[in-house]
Every structure is written in C-alpha cells, then in structure tokens.
Design goal:
The complex is a heterodimer. By secondary structure, chain A is of the alpha/beta class. Chain A is built from 14 helices and 17 strands. A 7-stranded mixed sheet of chain A has the order 4-10-9-8-7-5-6, with helices on both faces. The chains are: A alpha/beta, B alpha+beta. At the A-B interface, α12 of A face α1 and α3 of B. The structure holds pyridoxal-5'-phosphate.
C-alpha cells in the first residue's frame, strides 16, 4: 500500500517537551512504550476544561457539573469509536490497563472461575496481565496455564493449541508485547478460545499507539488500554467489554456513582458501565484522553505507522552493524520496539551512558520478568519509538551506543 | 562525557570484567541476599567470620550492572581480614561518600580504592547500584540470613 510521507517535523511541533535539552543536548525520547509524550492539543484541552468547566460529574444539578458530565461522557464516546466498540455503554473508564485487567479478574474471574477451570496467558505478558490472574487463581482455585515463546519472541502456537482446551475459560494476552514488540496473532488465538467456549481478553496497552484497533473485527471479549501510552494523561484508560458480559458481571469496587440507591435493606447497582466506576474518577484526565484521540484522528495514521516501521528497521540495522549487539525480539510481525543486549555491558550501564548523551531509553526487565527468564537474560535496553521520533533520533541512539562500546572497550 | 569517565573508571571496568572473590564459599557462616528490583540486580554475600570476629573470607555471587558488580568485588577486597567492627565502619564511610556532599579531598583515607565510587553521587539513580553489596554485607554482619532490597 502506498502512503504519503509522514510530516514528522510538523508533528514534533505539537509536542513541547521534545524541545527540551538534557545535559545541554537535544532530548532524544525513545521511551514512549513506558509512557508517551502529550501534544499541546491534549495539554490545552485539559487546561481549558479545568479552567472553564471542571466540576464533579453525574451528581450536580448545577450547570458546571452538567457541562463537566457532558465533556466526560463525550470522551467515553470517542474511546468507543476509537476502539470500534458498538456502543459507549461498553466502555468502562479506568485508571489504566492495570485497573481494567483487575476489573476482569476480580469481577468476572472471581465470580465465575472454580477449581476445574483454567486461564491461559502467555510468557510475554506484562506483570499486570500475570499477577491479577495469579491472585484470582489463589482466590478461586483455578489453574493458570502459560503459552511459551520461541527464540524470536513469537508465541508457540502449537503449544497454545495443546494448552487451550475444554477446561479453558479465558485466554488473556498482549495484543503487542511491551518488551519484544511482537504483534500477536489475535485471530488464531481468538479462534482457538472460541472453539472451546473460552473468552478472550486483549491487553492493548502497547497496541493502541501503533496498530489500528477494531474490537469488532478482532473478535475478542475484553480489550484494555492506558491513556498515557496513547499520548494522553496518566491515570486514565478503559476496558471495553461485550455488553452481555458486563451486564452479567458483579461490581468489584463499591462506592459512589456505581449505585442506583443505597439502603441497609439492600443496595441497587447502577447499570453498565457506571456499575464498575466507583468513586470520583480522573475527570480532566479522561477529557484529555478524549483530546488525544481527537489528535490522532487528525493524523494520517497509516503514514505514521509506516514511519515508525522505518525507524524500527533503521535502528535494528544500525545497531546490528555495530557488532556485539543482540536484538531481543525479532518477530516477523513487530511494532515500534527495539530491545537489545550488548556483550559485556549491562543494560543499566547502557541506560546511564545513553542518558548522558541525551537519549532516554528504558533499561531493565520492563515489568516482564518471564520474558527475560525465557531469553536467559536479566534485563534489556529498550528503545521504543513513536511517530514523533526521527531518523536523526535513531542516529543519536546508535552514536551513543557506540560511545558505550568504547567506554567498555 | 567527563562525568561518564569519572563514573566508569578503569578500576571499575576491570573489577566488572574480572570480579574478585566471586563464587561459592565453603564453610560460610554469614549470608545475605540483596535485590534491586528496579533493575533486576541480585547479589548474595557469603562470609566466614571467625571466633575473634574477623572476616576470614568473603565471596559474592549474582548478576548486576558494572557499578554493582565492581562495587561488590571491591567491597570483598576491602573487608577481607578486617574485624566486623572495622567492616561496618567502612560501610558507614562508603555510604557517606556516595550520598553526601563531602568534597573529594576530605574522603577518609581508609576508603582506599573504594574512592573510585566517588563519582557515583553525580548519578542519583546509580547510587543504589553502588551501595547494594554494602547494604547486603551490612545485613549479613548484623543479622544473619537477611534479605535486603534497595526499595525497602
Ligand atoms: C503490555 C502492557 N500491559 C500493561 C501495562 C500496564 O499499564 P498501566 O501501568 O498504564 O496500567 C503496560 C505498561 O507498561 C504494558 O506495556
């Protein structure tokens, strides 16, 4: 498919922090997988909301509260459209992916799983799609099964075919891996799950910024993501779930907003999605997330994603050309992450040296210790790209890695 | 770049490449584990302390960055043959060196080679790497079987 070139210079102008100097050098921000930067459009929208409209939502007779509620609910509609969800009633607003997954484990999982049931996850999950399942396994006696990965960082589908069976009630996996960049074969896994009557949950934290998501086409039952990886504010996110499922699930947190009426004779719960939204949320944050989605709507995303792919290719080739570098995660289908290890240089030292050169990367286990274990390494250095990165950024990264190689001789 | 050369001095690079006193210790009677969960550094310190409270032998195991590996290696060299009290005294001096504003020329001379870690204070996130083995040995010498974490 032909795409027009992406105007990265214009886009960079939208992200004020990218103009920052670090130790006197232009910042090269290659840590968007940890958290993406926010464009002025998001910062301004939040500020304007706070300055003119802010109030608590869903509970005021006064005009300000009504306006705030409208703005907040408008963001929910934008999120629904962004994910291809049939209705905004299927969007539960959360503080992020972590809370969205915990909602599923504690509401759906805790109320339906039992000792004969199995939940299948994978070796490449972020801790936030591992630990909540471990907790619910302890609570319900269900068994957790884990699909292994191969040396390229792709899921072992033969193993998945054996692991997913009649006892499987849920298959929960990353749409895109944060540590490896692998884009997982959603349709195969969803089909396997469906064949056995199991549900599917996709952790979309790393997918939404880099691939087009359409939950209807994906065929999954739940989809979770975080606003701060999508150029929006931290402390925001959403869970999409099928209406029938959400309706059948019990509340998991109690408090204001999630009720219709409270009485000591019995409390009546609100309808979905509000049933799952106890307490005052991050109101301006969610409005900011709506603005981030609007911002993305104004970009040519095909061109943006093609640009990211070119950056990943450039970085991979140039790092390998230095020698002594091993790329961790070489899946055929891969998004926006270059994780690597260097002979004789620990990622933590690499991270410090790159930082001194103004290059911000993540060094560590990326909250995916099983991934590290399966590659037999303690940690990696991870450069992660967003559409606002440039080929110049890649060159700066490579030069800084060369400096590290020199220092460590 | 000059700060980096200050951090990654030859002594540190050398001890990282060829850690001294690395491995198992038969007859060890004091142990501790240290963890830096932020970067995944793990270290185990094993000591043989005799009836006169002298550190007869000390070894370390584990994996970590250059700063934590070199620091562990130099720590073992520094405390071997010292009394427990003297080793704990070095812990205090080391801790002060990497966390205070003490000028370089006022460093206690008994720090000796450990002075190469002076530059770490310019890298706040790396102070934990340099101190991990020291906190671990401190735990081993004051409370056997201890586990320490830089995030405790
Ligand atoms: C794949 C993946 N899942 C889940 C999370 C957790 O997201 P949050 O911390 O925003 O809840 C992350 C964030 O690092 C991630 O990369």
């Amino acid at each position: 498919m032909m795409t027009t070139p992406f105007d990265v210079v214009a886009v960079r102008g939208d992200f004020p922090v990218l103009g920052r100097k670090i130790y006197g050098k232009d910042l090269v921000y290659l840590d968007s997988a940890a958290s993406a930067q926010k464009p002025s459009q998001v910062l301004d929208a939040q500020r304007a909301f706070d300055a003119t409209t802010y109030s608590n939502i869903h509970r005021g007779v006064h005009r300000l509260s009504q306006d705030a509620t409208v703005a907040y609910e408008a963001a929910r509609k934008k999120i629904a459209a962004f994910l291809g969800a049939p209705s905004e009633h299927e969007i539960v607003l959360t503080s992020g992916t972590t809370e969205a997954i915990n909602l599923v484990t504690q509401s759906w999982g805790r109320s339906t799983l039992g000792p004969d049931d199995e939940v299948v996850i994978t070796w490449m999950e972020h801790h936030s799609n591992i630990v909540p399942w471990q907790l619910v396994a302890e609570q319900t006696g269900c068994t957790l099964r884990v699909v292994p990965i191969d040396d390229r960082g792709e899921l072992d589908l033969d193993a998945a075919r054996k692991l997913i069976g009649p006892r499987t009630r849920m298959v929960a996996f990353a749409h895109v891996s944060n540590a490896l960049g692998t884009i997982n074969p959603v349709s195969e896994l969803v089909a396997l799950a469906k064949a056995h009557g199991a549900l599917t949950l996709l952790d979309g934290a790393q997918a939404v910024p880099h691939v087009k998501v359409d939950v209807a086409a994906l065929g999954c039952d739940f989809y979770a993501f975080s606003g701060h990886k999508l150029f929006g504010p931290s402390g925001t996110g959403a869970l999409w779930g099928r209406r029938k499922l959400l309706d059948s699930m019990p509340p998991w947190k109690g408090g204001g907003d999630m009720i219709l009426s409270v009485s000591f004779d019995g409390t009546r719960y609100n309808s979905v999605p509000h049933k799952f939204e106890a307490g005052t949320p991050n109101i301006s944050g969610i409005v900011g997330l709506g603005a981030a989605i609007d911002y993305l709507g104004g970009l040519d995303l095909d061109a943006a994603f093609a640009h990211e792919e070119a950056l990943v290719h450039h970085a991979t080739e140039s790092l390998l050309a230095l020698g002594k570098i091993r790329i961790i995660g070489t899946a055929k289908n891969k998004a926006s992450v270059v994780s690597f290890v260097t002979e004789g240089i620990h990622p933590h030292d690499m991270g410090t040296i790159l930082d001194q050169e103004g290059v911000a990367v993540r060094a560590g286990h990326h909250c995916a210790q099983p991934v590290m274990e399966s590659f037999g390494i303690p940690a990696t250095t991870r450069a992660s790209f967003a559409f606002y990165n440039t080929h110049d950024d890649v060159d700066r990264l490579v030069t800084a890695v060369r400096t590290a190689l020199e220092i460590f001789g | 770049m000059s700060d980096l050369r200050e951090l990654y001095q030859q002594v540190i690079l050398d001890h990282n490449r060829k850690p001294r006193n690395f491995g198992d210790l038969d007859g060890a009677n004091r142990f501790a584990h240290g963890d830096n969960p932020l970067c995944g550094d793990k270290i185990q310190v094993l000591l043989k302390v005799d009836g006169d409270n002298i550190v007869q032998d000390v070894k370390f195991k584990g994996s970590g960055c250059a700063i934590s590996t070199a620091s562990a290696s130099l720590m073992t060299e520094a405390i071997k043959g010292k009394t427990v009290v003297a080793a704990l005294g070095l812990f205090d001096l080391f801790h002060e060196m990497v966390t205070s504003d003490l000028p370089e020329h006022e460093l206690d001379p008994s720090l000796g080679k450990l002075g190469v870690f002076y530059g770490v204070r310019e890298f706040p996130v790396r102070v934990k790497c340099a101190s991990l083995s020291w906190h671990t040995v401190h735990a081993a010498l004051t409370d056997s079987d201890a586990v320490v974490s830089t995030e405790a």
